[in-house]
Structure formats: structure tokens, C-alpha cells
Write a structure and sequence with these properties.
The chain is of the alpha+beta class and about 375 residues long. It is built from 7 helices and 13 strands.
Length: about 375
């Protein structure tokens, strides 16, 4: 959190932008197509639609907006000063250290995130809602960033808006939030410059909290980048929040949970890479390796060297699910397994045929077309 010595009139807030009601169903379809985990959870035994159950529109409202984990999102500037554009991009990449997602900036006409500087205010559509916006229109806007704007403001605004682009809601709309707003003071402030919101916009952007049924959320985080500054003058009692200009520890953990990185594999063998060197160093030793299959196909696992080895294969994604075992199908007394494998993580265990022998060997995994 950063404290800034500015008066109340300096607070500029992000505007919530949402799709029209008549686009929600199609947006939900696109969200689920992008990431099946976005599908709404319907309790077992629920009454079907048409028999008193949830309508398609209600189900659309319950649909998530997260991109597929590991996604590369293309970003394109539709307009704006090149010098300002160049200052925006580095702050967007700040999310990549903690989320399994990538932002690639360029001029791709099919870019998922399209950025303008010409619209009023600063805002972004939430997550996959951007897929429902015509490709010649912005999905994100920065209304007050200029060449002379300081880096703290770039950091505060850009990281915040790209948080929305990843599907993060405003922290003050977190279902766990309990901010003691002085509503009359809030209306007076936000209905005046520099925001000039209507009373309805104040209600939507500040006082509306998301239902716990339609958003993933954590405990309220006063240091979240997704939270506006909240001065004492807009609350009752002694309650305020300063200017958050960087990701909080809770932001980092939360986005990492939404877009998790693949766990690091134990003694990983890279497919089609050179065989790795290893050894049976003690009597009865069993060496364990893992490798990841990205595409279904036929793969060959084999050892090299002078040892008489036994190799066992388990998976996918289950180190106890047996697939195959081999002793002497490779060169000399080496082990070789050739199997059709589905995508996932596989576990390989290697031991010497004799519990009283040790020595060096190599092991590799290859697609059937290799070697």
C-alpha cells in the first residue's frame, strides 16, 4: 500500500462495465467454451428449466468468467499516444509472475484485449466478457493516463484494470466486505468531478456486493490492488484505506489459485530431450521420475547403459495407476516401454533387476517418431 498526500478531489475510480442483458446467455456460452470450469454448479436434484428450475438467463448470471489456465491473451492498442502505450504494457505483465497466464502485445486484429484511451473513465470488461465485444471496439480503457502521469498512478490503474481482464471483481464488492460507508457523503463526492457519476452508478460501482454464489472470493483485503482508496470522509467512524498501487500478498495468492501453475515435476524427464544421467547408488534403490504428455500419441521410454534394469510406468495423473512394466526389451539388458498415452503426468520407477547391484545408466522419453 502507498500513502499519497492528495486531497479527496484527486480520487479517480474505475467504472464497472457490464454486458447488456440480451448478451448474457451468449457470453456464458463463450465463457464455458473457453474454460469448462466456468459452467455454473447446479445442485444435484435441481428442478430442470421449464419445470420451475433456473432459467437460461439465471444460469448465465451464475457462469464464471475465467480464461483457460495457461492461456496467452493477445493485447492490442486501438489508439493513444505511443509513449503512454509503452508505459502501460510493463505494469500489465506484473500479473504473469503469479498467474499462469501470458499477455502478448501486438497488432493482432483478433486480440482478446483491446485498449483505448478515448473513452470516459478507466474500466475493463470482466474476464471472458471481452469475447462478446465486437473486435473493432475496446474491452479496456484508460481515460486519464497521460505522459505526465506519475508511475504510481500507472501502476495503480493498469494493474487494477488487467485484474478485471483476468476476472477479478472490485475488492469493495467482495461478499466478505463490511465497509462502514457514509452513503450521503459518498453520493456527494462521486456525483461531482472528477467522476461525475449518477446516483445509480454510485450504487452499482460502490455499494453493490457480489453474491457468494456467483464469484470466487477470499477474505476482504484492505491492501488489494482491486480496492479503491477510501478516505475517512466517506465512512463513519475511524475507517480508511490508502492508495494501493501494487499487488498485495493476498492478490498474489488469490490469482495463483484462479490460474495455477503446473506443479513442478519430481525428477522431470523432458519428452524428446537428450537422455538424462542417473545411477542406482544403493542396494535395492528405486529411482522415480515424472514426465508430462501434452498430446495423445505413442511414446517410447527406455534406459541406456550396461545395467539390467526393470522399469514401471504409472498414470496419467495417478502414480498408483499401473500402465506397463518391462525388463529386457531394450538394447542389451535395458528396459523399453512403448505405449499409447493420453495427456497428463506420468510416473516412472526404475530399479536394478538384482537387489545386490548398483551402477550408472541413462533414461529418456521420446515420441514414437523420434529415434
Amino acid at each position: 500500500m502507498t500513502t499519497r498526500n492528495e486531497d479527496l478531489s484527486s480520487i479517480r475510480a474505475c467504472i464497472d462495465v457490464t454486458l447488456p442483458t440480451d448478451q448474457l446467455y451468449e457470453a456464458a456460452r463463450r465463457a464455458i467454451e473457453e474454460n469448462p470450469a466456468n459452467a455454473p454448479a447446479i445442485p444435484r436434484g435441481s428442478v430442470p428449466f421449464g419445470q420451475g428450475g433456473p432459467s437460461p438467463l439465471a444460469l448465465a448470471a451464475l457462469t464464471g468468467k475465467l480464461w483457460k489456465t495457461g492461456r496467452t491473451l493477445r493485447c492490442r492498442f486501438l489508439d493513444g499516444d505511443p509513449a503512454v502505450q509503452a508505459r502501460v504494457e510493463p505494469f500489465a505483465h506484473g500479473w504473469e509472475q503469479y498467474a499462469n497466464i501470458k499477455f502478448v502485445f501486438g497488432n493482432d486484429p483478433d486480440a482478446e484485449i483491446r485498449i483505448s484511451f478515448k473513452q470516459p473513465g478507466s474500466w475493463s470488461y470482466l474476464g471472458t466478457d471481452a469475447l462478446s465485444i465486437p473486435k473493432n471496439q475496446p474491452t479496456m480503457n484508460y481515460g486519464w493516463l497521460r505522459r505526465e502521469t506519475d508511475d504510481q498512478e500507472y501502476s495503480r490503474v493498469v494493474i487494477h484494470e488487467f485484474g478485471h481482464a483476468l476476472g477479478c471483481i472490485h475488492e469493495h464488492q467482495n461478499p466478505a466486505t463490511d465497509i462502514p460507508w457514509d452513503k450521503d457523503a459518498v453520493y456527494r463526492y462521486y456525483q461531482g468531478p472528477p467522476n461525475n457519476w449518477t446516483r445509480s452508478q454510485v450504487d452499482i460501482n460502490l455499494f453493490t456486493r457480489y453474491s457468494a454464489d456467483i464469484t470466487q472470493f477470499s477474505e476482504f483485503d484492505r491492501e488489494s490492488i482491486m480496492l479503491y482508496p477510501i478516505p475517512n470522509a466517506l465512512t463513519t467512524g475511524d475507517y480508511e484505506v490508502g492508495w494501493n498501487t501494487e499487488l498485495s500478498e493476498q492478490d498474489k495468492a488469490f490469482i495463483g489459485a484462479l490460474y495455477p501453475f503446473a506443479p513442478k515435476l519430481e525428477n522431470e524427464i523432458k519428452v524428446d530431450a537428450p537422455a538424462i544421467s542417473a545411477s542406482i547408488g544403493q542396494y535395492g534403490e528405486v529411482d522415480t521420475y515424472q514426465f508430462a504428455v501434452a498430446q495423445e500419441g505413442t511414446y517410447r521410454l527406455e534406459t541406456e547403459g550396461k545395467l539390467d534394469l526393470v522399469m514401471s510406468l504409472f498414470g496419467p495423473d495417478d502414480p498408483a495407476h499401473f500402465v506397463a512394466m518391462d525388463d529386457d526389451s531394450g538394447d542389451r539388458l535395458n528396459a523399453r516401454i512403448v505405449e499409447s498415452l493420453k495427456p497428463g503426468v506420468y510416473t516412472v520407477r526404475v530399479r536394478h533387476y538384482s537387489a545386490r547391484r548398483t551402477g550408472d545408466y541413462k533414461i529418456g522419453v521420446y515420441t514414437a517418431a523420434q529415434g
